[in-house]
Design goal:
The chain has 69 residues and is mainly alpha-helical. The chain is built from three helices and no strands.
Length: 69
């Protein structure tokens, strides 16, 4: 936000307001396309596809990553 504030010579609060407004419009437009409603059928389909690829039954996904101690 600071870079935009300096580049366009706008107040920091104005830039912040514009970003919030644009983000809200994007969310309202795309939320239904990007995040389908959660229901039993979606979970079953996801679990079946995951089991077919990984041979892990009754699982809708997995998290992988480094574990640091």
């Amino acid at each position: 936000m600071t870079d935009l504030h300096l580049i366009y010579w706008l107040g920091l609060s104005t830039v912040s307001y514009i970003i919030r407004e644009v983000a809200q419009v994007i969310w309202l437009r795309w939320k239904d396309d990007c995040f389908p409603p959660l229901n039993e059928e979606l979970f079953k389909k996801t679990a079946d596809g995951f089991e077919e690829r990984t041979q892990f039954p009754h699982c809708v996904g997995a998290i992988d990553g480094k574990h640091t101690g």
